[in-house]
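Input record (one chain):
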Amino acid sequence: MDSIIFDVDGTLWDSTGICADAWNTVIQRETDLNLIITKETLKGLFGQLLPDIAKKIFPNYSTQQQLDLIDQCCQEEHRALLECCAPLYPELEETLQTLSEKYRLFIVSNCQAGYIEVFLQSSGLGKYFEGHLCPGDTGNAKADNILQIIRDYHLISPVYVGDTAGDQQASKTAGIPFVFASYGFGSATTPDYTIKSPKELLKIF
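The corresponding structure, as predicted from the sequence alone:
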């Protein structure tokens, strides 16, 4: 193995509390919906593509209205996350520092353009990652973005670390091993590896 590609939400940090507040601000400001988004709501949605999330939250709006609203939610969460870093999972920086001494580290997440940059800036962890991609950058889903990272950075034997069945499927489609972060938001069946905290990556690799 020469490299590790990470998911963000449910793998590196838990931004659902801050994001829920930000999304509720937009919903109250821009709609007449009697709707309150909670952390648990977002834990069940994060990892999906944004248009799919928008369709589930705003089903009675037109597609364009859904996209406009979800974009405003994303911009509001960016502002909030830059003001206050979301909780990082225990011993994350120490783990990344140790891993980066031996492996090249990357991020691929199903998020909007700018979100990974917000994570890197807010957390102060940007120095450990060599590159990143998301659908907001490329218009492509996770498996294709993993493959683009592999091509662009000439990776030989990467693994992917994520917390959902979607992450597992993307890893399978990309043809690389999957490490399941069981402390995150989702579930997985028969992953190649399972960790209960980021630090357990050091035991595997």
